[in-house]
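To close the chapter, one final illustration. This time we ask the reader to focus less on the individual chains and more on the assembly as a whole: which components sit near each other, and how the overall shape emerges from the parts.
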Amino acid sequence: MENTLQAVPQNWYLVLSTLLFCIGIMGVLFRRNAIIILMCIELMLNSVNLLLVSFSAYSGNSDGQVFVFFIMVVAAAEVAVGLALLMSIYRNVASTDINVLNKLKW
Amino acid sequence: MSLYLFLTLAILTIISALAVVFSKNPMYSVLWLIVCFFTIAGHYVLLNAQFLAIVHLIVYAGAIMVLFLFVVMLLNLNADTEPHKSNLTKIASAIAAGLFFVVLIASMRATELGEFNLPNKTSIGFVEEVGKKLFTDFLLPFEISSVLFLSAMIGSVLLAKKEKK
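The assembled structure is written out below.
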């Protein structure tokens, strides 16, 4: 099997990860459920990871993969804290609808 | 061959990401996100990042998505409890995301991406290479990330604990 790096231009990876990022943004903007918003943030983080990996592969330097490693660490910590917050919010207002939480809205 | 592999994986990734956003039932959203993560792991394998692909599967599909599934089941969320949203928000957010996509693509077209000499070695994603980088050049961030994990652990336990009256 021939090398992927020769068969696929890098621009395609740029477009793919941009598209994934925009889908994540769309989800964050129009879903009301806080869990789905967290999932869309995960999607955006993953699109950036894909971009970093593609740059690291096309330039032959593994620094980018180490950065992806750290992004995964931060994402795992973020999800743990976010879901804990969500649980305590659900305990107080019995809903995960973010429109209920509008006390800080002017 | 690998071109078709890339195209198939890319289409699957986009479709599953769209399904995450548009599923009515949060349960289906979580399951589609797992599919999306598997296809992204496939992209990593295509890009010679084998170690990262396995770590991605273990961390995301194995740990994070189980956490999500657990919370969705614990809160008993389904399509009936899904908050209602107006069509106006849907259209507005789709237009906003689409415009952002156009801006990003336009700025990428305007950028001069330097020509890479395609590397010959395919071992950049092996455990040996990444581990060497991690424990020499990136030792300090690696150690600090353990502190981050500790604080996240303590924080989530404290947050999820029942409050005393």
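DSSP finds four helices and no strands in chain A. Residues 16 and 47 of chain A are 8 Å apart (CA to CA). With these observations in hand, you are ready for the problems at the end of the chapter.
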